[in-house]
Structure prediction request, 117 residues.
Amino acid sequence: QVQLVESGGALVQPGGSLRLSCAASGSIFSFDAMAWYRQAPGQQREWVATITKETRTNYADSVKGRFTISRDNAKNTLYLQMNSLKPEDTAVYYCNARTFAYGTNYWGKGTLVTVSS
Prediction:
C-alpha cells in the first residue's frame, strides 16, 4: 500500500510564504502525475496544481503566479511552494498521486494551512 504523508502546514499571516511537502513511501517515478488539492471549511475539495512525470505543470487560476509545484525524485517528495498567501488559501491541503496504466489513485491525510492576521 502506497503511503503519502503531507507536512508543513501552519498558521501564517497574509502575504506570507509556506512550503508544503508530501513524502511518498516508495519511488515517485511510478506515478504518472502528482497533484495538490485543498478543502476549505464547509467547501468541496478542489484541485490546486498538477505535475506530470515529464515535469509539465498546471495550476488553478486562483493560485497561478503565487504557487509552484515541484518534485524531487531522489527524495521521493512532492512540494508546493506557496507565496503571497491570502485568507482564501486557508484549507486542508492534500497530496494526490496517480498511475494511468493501472488506474490507481492515492491520497494523503492532509495538512492544515491557516492564513490569518
About this structure: The longest strand covers residues 91-99. The chain has a mean pLDDT of 96.
